[in-house]
Specification:
By secondary structure, this protein is an alpha+beta fold. The protein is built from 9 helices and 10 strands. The longest helix is centred in the middle third of the chain and has 16 residues.
């Protein structure tokens, strides 16, 4: 019986590492020559931003997660705490070396939550503001101007360009549902759907790069106002992580991984708002976390508030035993503008 020969596959490991400092959501990025898992990874300050990544070494790494932690430590100097597996990405030609006869690259992505720290390592690591990559996702000061000025007109043009009435209608519905247009609500968790639509229409810089067309020949030239591009499909991975994180706010206490051991309720609110990209009603959030017994008072006060001292709280870990879904939720979302 003739033995089947399968093409080679490389397993990659990617880490979306998020932090929130004050009111700023941050993502850890690195620089690497070519951003290919099949070549030598070297620091290149001129390369596009990437999330920390590297190949899984079955001879060295007992588990995928241990391999990920090793890569992050080597590239950024960070020791990760909370880590969860996010998704597996394996589209054909997602690594440029595959088109040149290289192996298929399947990447297992993880989401890690940390507090911002000093970086070192071998990969030119930097903290970047998350909404530099997705400027349409930050609604804390109202609907972002980029939606009305850039995204909505291009998407409507794309919808109207369809020759078939059914396709035209489907495109319009997809645009409205994902971007909160035409009376549809804005749904925070649909980060990936929005980015994929922007990519499909050609508004993302990566779309022009991946198509092989010069930007001026692409039907919808990209604009840096539509977000900072990333290497390979890393912005898609980041969109997946942000959507997952926003969803988990409702049913898991992940937000406390980003806070100090003692915090004010205002600090808690600002971190939730930074991740959700919307403002929340102060009293509704406080009522939820207090009646849900997510936090408990420490008996101490923060004297550095600039006004009346604010009580310090801590996460009440017993809630993990008491409730199946102890999230802070997104209560009383306030859309402005």
């Amino acid at each position: 019986m003739e033995k089947t020969i399968y093409p080679p596959v490389v397993i990659g490991l990617n880490a979306v590492i998020a932090a929130v400092t004050e009111e700023t959501p941050l993502i850890l990025t690195v620089k690497g020559t070519g951003h290919s898992l099949t070549g030598e990874l070297k620091h290149d300050s001129n390369a596009a931003d990437a999330i920390p990544f590297g190949p899984f070494d079955p001879a060295c790494d007992r588990t995928l997660e241990l391999g990920l932690r090793r890569w992050v430590r080597e590239q950024t100097g960070l020791e990760l705490g909370y880590v969860e597996q996010l998704y597996t990405f394996g589209d054909k030609n997602r690594d440029p070396s595959e088109e040149e006869g290289g192996p298929r690259v399947v990447s297992v992505a993880y989401l890690a939550l940390v507090r911002e720290g000093i970086l070192s390592g071998t990969a030119g690591a930097h903290w970047r503001q998350c909404y530099l990559f997705f400027p349409w996702e930050d609604w804390r000061r109202g609907r972002p101007a980029v939606i009305e000025n850039h995204i909505a007109p291009a998407l409507r043009q794309w919808a109207d360009s369809a020759f078939d009435d059914r396709v035209r209608q489907e495109r319009r519905e997809r645009i409205d549902i994902n971007f909160g247009l035409g009376g549809a609500p804005w749904v925070q968790e649909r980060v990936l759907e929005r980015y994929e639509l922007i990519y499909e229409v050609g508004l993302a810089a990566e779309a022009s790069r991946d198509s092989g067309l010069p930007i001026e020949e692409h039907p919808f030239p990209s604009d840096l106002a539509l977000g900072r591009p990333m290497a390979l499909d890393h912005r898609r991975i980041l969109a997946t992580a942000l959507g997952r994180l926003r969803g988990k706010l409702k049913y898991r206490p992940v937000v406390f991984e980003l806070l100090p051991s003692a915090f004010t309720l205002l600090q808690l609110q600002r971190v939730v708002e930074a991740l959700a990209g919307v403002r929340l009603h102060k009293q509704n959030l406080r009522r939820l976390v207090e009646t849900g017994r997510l936090v408990e008072g420490t008996g101490q006060f923060d004297q550095q508030t600039g006004g009346r001292p604010a009580e310090l709280f801590r996460f009440r870990r017993d809630v993990l035993r008491e409730r199946p879904a102890p999230g802070v939720g997104l209560p009383g979302i306030r859309h402005t503008g």
